[in-house]
Amino acid sequence: MKTKRLIISMIFVVLFSIFVYISHQINFVPGQEISKNALDFLSNIIKVFPGVFILIGLFEVWIKASTIEKHFGKESGIKGYIMAIILASTTIGGLFVSFPVAYSLYHKGAKLSAIFTYISASAVCRVPMTIFEISFIGVKFTLVRFFVSLPLIVISSKLLGDHLEKHNYTLAPGK
Fold first, then answer.
1. Is residue 8 domain-resident?
2. Beta carbons of 56 and 89 less than 8 angstroms apart
3. Does residue 9 share a domain with residue 93?
4. Which domain holds residue 21?
5. Which of 31, 64, 69, 135 could bridge across to 73 with cysteines, CB 3.0–4.6 Å?
6. What is the pLDDT of residues 21-61, one digit of tens each?
7. How do residues 136-173 score in pLDDT, each as one tens digit?
8. Straight-line distance from the first to the last Cα atom of the chain, in angstroms, rounded to the nearest whole number
């Protein structure tokens, strides 16, 4: 399965590279813009990832599983969701940073519903995004969005987490 996925990924990279090359040869502007955007995105990821992985590594080493279980585990109650939202609001780097943190939380004993809350809240209420939103749309809109979004996130996370736990769902161990 891994080999098949790797082959498909390599085919995609080769086809994309051919598309970019041809776009530059025939001055196909949309293709040139796509390649420019792809390079900008790759540049941003390369700038953010080293620091993120260092912080995730430190999180893995410094934070005990018992601490995660206490604050995000099955017995945490509503506190687990509040902690997940607070942690999510401090996440910088978007969802590609949130998923490794969520994976680490899961393997340290966090309940699935708290992890779903963390991932969803990190897409909705990160501090830099909130500041940007307030400056363009206003405080009232942002507060309304939070008061509508966050309860829905917690409710849907609880429902999904309970459903998956009832069916004994577990994540595969990392390889």
1. yes
2. no
3. no
4. 1-47
5. 69
6. 999 999 999 999 999 999 998 898 888 888 888 888 898 89
7. 999 999 999 999 999 999 999 999 999 998 998 877 66
8. 13
> Strand, helix or coil at 172?
coil
Q: Which of 30, 2, 34, 42 is nearest to 16 (CA)?
A: 34
For residue 114, give the nearest of 144, 84, 156 by alpha carbon. 84
41, 68: one domain: no
Give the pair of three-digit tokens for residue 108.
């340290």
Residues 19, 75, single domain; the answer is: no
Q: What is the pTM of this model?
A: 0.77
Q: Dihedral (C-alpha) 32, 35, 40, 42: value to the nearest 10 degrees? A: -170
SS3 call for 126:
coil
CA angle centred on 15, ends 47 and 41, rounded to 5°: 20
Residue 174 has pLDDT above 60, yes or no: no
For residues 81 and 154, the answer to whether their CB atoms sit within 8 Å is yes
Size (the chain), residues: 175
Torsion of CA 32, 37, 42, 45, to 10 degrees: 180
> What is the rounded average pLDDT of the residues 103-110?
90
